[in-house]
Amino acid sequence: MMVALKDFDTKERMQWCPGCGNFGLLTALKGALAELGTPRHETVIVTGIGCSGKTCHYVNTYGFESLHGRPLPVASGIKLANTGLTVIAEGGDGDGYGIGAQHFVHIMRRNYDLAYIVHDNQLYGLTTGQASPTSLMGMKTKTTPWGVIEKPFNPIAHGILGGATYVARGFAGDPVHLKELIKGAIAHKGFALVDVFQPCVTFNYLNTYQWFQERVYKLEAAGHDPKNRDAAMEKALEDSKTDYKKIPIGLFYKEERPTYEEQLPQIKDKPLVKHDITNVDISAAYEELE
Ligand code: SF4
What we know:
290 residues; alpha/beta; Rossmann fold; eight-stranded mixed β-sheet; two-stranded antiparallel ribbon; 10 strands; binds iron/sulfur cluster
């Protein structure tokens, strides 16, 4: 089925600040869905809470804005109920690597067939600029007026070690490159993480578009082999090892591994939603609870 880019537009009034990196990310996401020809009625975008949470309102597919840090459990539930759907989870760095960190860790080792896109703006944007797990050391925010003193969380290294089978990082300032990474994530069979540098032009005065443009380089152009796990880990640590002077973007790691869903005998032949429930009687269970 052919799907045009404009088919994914909605009539919602966008509430992101002018110049926000979320616009580049949204363009890349819609472009990826259109180029893959993903049917809108078979696609679900699940978000958490934050500026990123609005994404599901701005793409004309099914959508679910869940709780803070909870897009992954909701997305995995949807996938388990109907394995035929394309399920995309989205959230911010605070949402996914802070509040939702426990879900992130366990969902990766299970390898659900989901694409997880993280709007990584290195702070909490919707709550007006507090330090997040990926804020760099020394960064001054409302909650860290003398600068962050904690080491930042490394999502790429955690993704590779944690069992994600597709681990990539893009930059919202390069939506064409990012679109390819998102396409790869959606097409991949297994858990795909795409961490996206998404400049917050209103509250993050350190990690600006220019800051990233001066530092990022593409792994594909550097001859990186995404099947090589050791090389992927090496690249994942390059940013901190170079004091963020060199920051790789692109596909770090990819492997094939059975998904969680395909190992469940209950849904091997057909998804849960296609099971016949007309003869299921749960009144005995209700009576026991009375
Ligand atoms: Fe974007 Fe930051 Fe504005 Fe949120 S607060 S919409 S992340 S620029």
